[in-house]
Amino acid sequence: MTDALKTVAFIGIGKMGLPMSVLVAKAGYTVTGFDQSAARISEARAQGIAIAASPAEAVSGKAAVITSLPDDAALRGALLGPAGLIAAMAPGAVLIETSTVSVAASAEVAAAAQARGDIAYLRSPVSGNASIVHTGALTCFVSGPTDAFERAKPLFAAFTRAQTYLGPAEEARYAKLSVNLMIAVSAAMMAESLALARKGGIAWQDILKVLDDSAVASPMVKYKTAPLRTRDFESTFSCKQMAKDLDLILGAGHAVGVPLQLAAQVRETYGSLVAQGDGDTDFIATVKHLERLSGLGEPKL
């Protein structure tokens, strides 16, 4: 470890934050965590992460602060205002924010960091899910001050396999929302394709093999045909989370004048899934939704 960001605070040590913090600690950094959940704190302690009594204590004197938070409200609540972490961070510290949040909320954090004048804000949303984070296979998109990014590269390498620097402002937020838009639409597209194939008399395993061996066999398709073979809808990223992200995507599109017609349609699909009780199932439950609409039951495996 050659960088100067040797002391790290992790704010938000849930499904993503905890395994990221463990990877960073294993890489030789001094890590202190905090979370609002007592259960998460207990799990973090069991994995060897030091826990602070408060968020302010966690970030006090730390060279880097990494946040992993569920939504805009949590981001604003944790970072902004007189009692927020930006006010409590050490002079010269780097804030690495890894959550999927709106461009607007991120811009508020940027303004607060700029107002302080002595901390650097890196928008660093990660791409990947809780099933792979412990392997270090996440990637991230980064935007913010280039000198801070260069300083933080060794730290990023502790918990992501690749980092793409995109610009000085909110570019990384747009990148994450753009990727998630393609994932959401792909899930809806797969659902329609599979329902059509089944109605045409193709066996379940056969159509999955067709997709895997065809021109559409992208990493996204193969990532989902594997669990679909056994009808495994256990969540890696839930329908509720995808609905939330599509709301962020639509808001970003409206703000910059981009008509996102597919995003709007797919958002309604995920709204239906949540309303039908599938909110906590994996986002590929679009398959079940289309099967219901098409009058299809469970296929023979």
How would you sum up this structure, described in words?
By secondary structure, this protein is of the alpha/beta class. It folds into 2 domains: 7-169, Rossmann fold, CATH 3.40.50; 174-293, N-(1-d-carboxylethyl)-l-norvaline Dehydrogenase, domain 2 (Orthogonal Bundle), CATH 1.10.1040. Helix content is 52%, strand content 12%. The chain contains 13 helices and 9 strands. The chain has helices at 17-26, 38-46, 55-59, 72-79, 85-88, 103-116, 146-159, 171-199, 204-212, 219-228, 239-256, 261-278, 286-293; strands at 7-11, 30-34, 50-51, 64-67, 94-97, 120-123, 126-127, 139-143, 162-167. A 6-stranded parallel sheet has the order 3-2-1-4-5-6, with helices on both faces. Strand 1, helix 1 and strand 2 form a beta-alpha-beta unit. The longest helix has 29 residues, at 171-199. The radius of gyration is 21 Å and the shape is elongated. The N and C termini lie far apart (49 Å).
